[in-house]
Amino acid sequence: MYGKAFAPEYRGALGELSVNSSLDDVLRTALDRLREAERADDALESAHAGLAVAEASRRLGRVAQAEQAWKDSYRAARRAGDEGAMAWAVWSGGTLARQCGDLALAMRWLTIAAELAKRGGDVVARGYSLAGLAETGRIRGDYQAVAELHEQLLAEARRRGEARHTVWALEGIAQIHRNTGAYDKALAMFEEAAQIAARADDTRGHAWALRGIADVLSLRGESERALDLLSRAETACRRMGLVSALAYNHKMRGNVLYRAGRYEEARVVYAGALDEFTKMSEPRGTALARLGLVKAEARLGRERAATAADLDELHRTLDGLGLRHARDMVERARTDLGLVPADAGSAGRP
């Protein structure tokens, strides 16, 4: 039903690159091709190569390089008069904005990308842009607003047999189910995503699906199985150089250890994840890792006033980022740590 996963963001002369190519290799190859295209004054090929530079840099956590590359790609695509290539560049910019925690800017760029793709007749770029809008809305906690779009994109991906997009949509819907307490549905969808990704040789999608499965298993008390899955996902992340995904994997390992009452181990892992997110300037991951660290240290006897002050600051940070579910997690932490009356907490889980 599904073919082998491919990476449509690797375009033009870079189209033969695998979805599983090491990001360091992608970046080196793309930079070489960009220099060749610029010497040949080939604007469209410069746009394609610049897009690959932007995406490899973003996934490696090199924010400034990614920012410059997607803008250069857009300018080259505009010189070439190719609205499809312009759409891909702006999609990359929107994805970077989301990674950097500017969700409003992400929505703006992704909306523009979807319109450019529509005008340029690039169905795949439009699908990726709409998927980016759905993911951004989900991260903000706008579940009702984006659930239908997720389902629509899943149906389209299944119809076209696009494994990578099917996996993405399944994981997005599964995350909504997980965050709203429908753990059985979430687990089933994460497991289907993992199966499809494995058959399609989509290493990145498979690693994210394993992380989702581990999360739900941990919530059910199956800590050792969860940790084993995270170890498998970590191996894949390291092989491809997926810096951001690896940091989120480590943050989830901290969650699993914390839920199991292994607070000192959780503290160490959260601290490591916090350092990883800080180095790549990823505010959402930074705040979530810090929340885990604050909770673990509280369980290890940290002074209550200091914990309360940190939670206040995290609430303001997450509220400023527009992360409703994460903000609710702070309120749940207050309740779990006995810093507010039980009826003042919300249903968020770490």
UniProtKB/TrEMBL annotation:
InterPro entries per the UniProt record, alphabetical: TPR-like_helical_dom_sf (IPR011990), TPR_rpt (IPR019734)
Keywords: Coiled coil
Coiled coil spans: 20-47
Pfam family, one: TPR_12
Official protein name in the record: Tetratricopeptide (TPR) repeat protein
Taxonomic source organism: Streptomyces olivoverticillatus
Organism taxonomic ancestry: Bacteria, Bacillati, Actinomycetota, Actinomycetes, Kitasatosporales
